[in-house]
Amino acid sequence: MCNLYRMTKPPSEVAAWFGAVEGAGGANFAAEVYPGYTGLVVADGAVRPMTWGFPLVLKGAKGQPLKPRPVNNAREDKLTTGFWRHAFQHRRCLIPLEAWAEAEGPKGRMTRTWLSPGGLSLPDAPLFAVAGVWRPSDEWGDCYAMVMTASAGSDAAAVHERMPVLLAPADQSRWLTTPPAEAHALCRAWTGPLAIARTAEPWSQRKPAAPPAGPVLL
User: Domains in the chain, ordered, with CATH?
Assistant: First the structure.
């Protein structure tokens, strides 16, 4: 699953790339986006900053409320279940990326492997779109999650068993506007070429110090 991605383009360039308008208020986000932090999405025709992850509110052993955890990835086979259903039916979005990262290697010594479509690795990879869903929340304001699917049949299978749902330009408006059943049919592994760049960078390198909580997937 994806717990780190890279997106360095400013909102104005993202808006031009996806034929959207630049949302009001600007956006403060890092080039490397982690669960619980701010990223850009294209929703309702505008480029908007949101928190990556739906808040999952849990209780402790004595019933006390705990700090919410960001559920940043949504499995495609769970989109019609209670946690995701309303967002999938009514609030789909595009998540602009340049590449996403997976952890490879032995525990405690995992390194970053970056993946991007089109056969171009960083820093040459252009923007592309991943399927997303979003909703407002009391805890973090507007928030989004990335839709994941099995990677079988894709170059990504050499790195991880799951991958983000990448959307070809012709499919982006379909993801945003078509009925749920038609949108769900787009949730499949990417079969085009992928650039896979294995690095010696530690997986945890430069990770922000205090995210809201560890990521989970439903």
Answer: 5-217 (3.90.1680.10)
